[in-house]
Design a protein that fits this description.
The protein is an alpha/beta fold. It is 46% helix and 17% strand. The chain has helices at 7-14, 41-65, 80-91, 104-125, 127-149, 161-172, 187-195, 208-213, 229-242, 258-264, 272-285, 287-297, and strands at 32-33, 70-72, 99-101, 154-157, 180-184, 199-202, 221-224, 247-252, 268-271, 303-309, 325-331, 334-337, 351-357. β11 and β12 form a beta hairpin.
């Protein structure tokens, strides 16, 4: 009879997947997407036209400076207009042959200068294809810089209703979108996240290599917002293996999964069905209380619950005498409600949970 797999075996299973983090940056373009500033199509066309005309004008002046080394079939001396005409038919590869370089210096300039300009002009003409390649190169470069700088960010696994609400709360509380990484398997959902300025990684949050690609091992927090409760347990277990020091917050629909998430490594568990049920019960008798709770949970308008450090002149005083409405004091990682005997006075390393006006 086979025994239960030990922790070492579970760990090996989690890390046996293909190592995405070992792939080169250009191979991650379709998996990781770092938002970039969009380029206007009209601006792109104007830039190409300017580049094309600039190459022709530059070639014309070079030919004009060496006009004595060129021969016209009519035997006329080369003028500036003739030089521009020759540059135009030469760079655009039309090449009528009525004007040709005859001196060695003119031919050398054609080899070293005019021919590279002709090739560059062709590149501009096929700019659509080149732009696609350039876009991939730019994205690969952005991914490389992003992976090097990624520290103390927040990873949001799942960009459904709960995930989007969590991101809105983070950005409303002042977290820059560039410091949030969204992990999801749905490309359409990730497209919306990218348009919101978020870095996205396509893949399953239950796979260790996907989380490492999202930088979970260096993240300050991981939010698990999976659509299924059993998936949330597996994702939390994987996230804790990859990010042993990160704060993991998970959401589930049913409270029966709470202890499984805590055993899997979640620091906080939010039970959405129980919370919604309590709000529904309160709304039947005191709907204004529900409105106030919604206000407090919306950080970018009205009032919000926030956390801050204790100021030096507040040490030793009572939380009830501060200018802010203090709800609780966080001391040594434990939350103590204001008004109890444990928080008659504020200590130096305390943190205050208070009501802030947005």
């Amino acid at each position: 009879m086979a025994g239960r797999p030990g922790p070492g075996r579970i760990r090996r299973r989690l890390f046996l997947d293909d190592e995405l983090t070992d792939r080169p940056d250009y191979d991650l373009v379709n998996i990781v997407r770092v938002p970039m500033r969009p380029v206007s199509p009209s601006r792109s066309i104007i830039v190409r036209l300017v580049l094309g005309v600039g190459m022709i004008v530059l070639s014309g002046f070079i030919v004009y400076l060496q006009r004595d080394g060129y021969q016209d079939v009519a035997g006329k001396p080369m003028t500036l207009l003739d030089s521009m005409y020759h540059a135009t038919v030469s760079v655009t590869t039309t090449g009528f042959g009525d004007i040709s370089p005859v001196s060695e210096s003119a031919r050398l300039v054609n080899i070293l200068v005019i021919t590279p300009l002709r090739m560059a002009f062709l590149v501009v003409l096929v700019g659509t294809t080149i732009e696609v390649l350039t876009e991939r190169s730019r994205q690969a470069f952005k991914i490389q810089r992003w992976r090097q700088r990624l520290r103390d960010h927040t990873v949001v696994i799942g960009y459904g209703t709960k995930g989007r609400a969590a991101v809105d709360a983070l950005t409303g509380d002042g977290v820059p979108p560039g410091e949030i990484v969204v992990v999801d398997t749905d490309a359409a959902v990730l497209e919306k996240a990218s348009h919101a300025g978020l870095v996205t990684v396509q893949g399953s949050g239950s796979k260790a290599d996907v989380l490492r690609l999202a930088g979970a091992q260096r993240a300050a927090a991981v939010i698990v917002a999976a659509n299924r409760d059993d998936t949330a347990v597996l994702v939390t277990l994987t996230a804790r293996e990859v990010a042993p020091k990160a704060k993991i917050v998970a959401a589930v629909r049913e409270s029966e999964y709470t202890h499984l998430l805590e055993q899997s490594g979640a620091d906080s568990v939010v039970v959405s069905s129980a919370t919604a049920g309590r709000l529904l019960g309160v709304a039947t008798s005191t709907p204004n209380v529900v409105d106030m709770i919604e206000d407090l949970l919306t950080p970018d308008e009205g009032f919000a619950i926030a956390e801050r450090e204790v100021e030096p002149d507040e040490v030793g005083g009572s939380p009830r005498h501060l200018r802010d409405i203090v709800l609780a004091v966080v001391r040594n990682g434990e939350m103590l409600r204001a008004g109890t005997a444990d928080v008659d006075s504020i200590e130096e390393n305390d943190r205050l949970l208070y009501i802030r006006k947005a």
